[in-house]
Amino acid sequence: MATHAGYANFTELPRPGRAALPFVLLCVAALSFELDPNLPWVIGAIAAGSFGGAGALRAYRARRELEAVRRTVDRLIVFEPHSSETSALVRWRSLELTSPSYRKGLRRETDRVLSMLDRSSLPGASPLRRLAARRSESLLQLLSAKLGGGQPVTARGVLLARQLLREPSSPLFSDESEHLLPQALKRVLGALET
Question: What is the DSSP string of the chain?
Answer without folding.
Answer: -GGGGGGTTT-----HHHHHHHHHHHHHHHHGGGG-TTS-HHHHHHHHHHHHHHHHHHHHHHHHHHHHHHHHHHHHHHH-GGGGGT-HHHHHHHHHHTSHHHHHHHHHHHHHHHHHT-TTSPP-S----HHHHHHTHHHHHHHHHHHHSSS---HHHHHHHHHHHH-TTSTTTSTTHHHHHHHHHHHHHHHH--
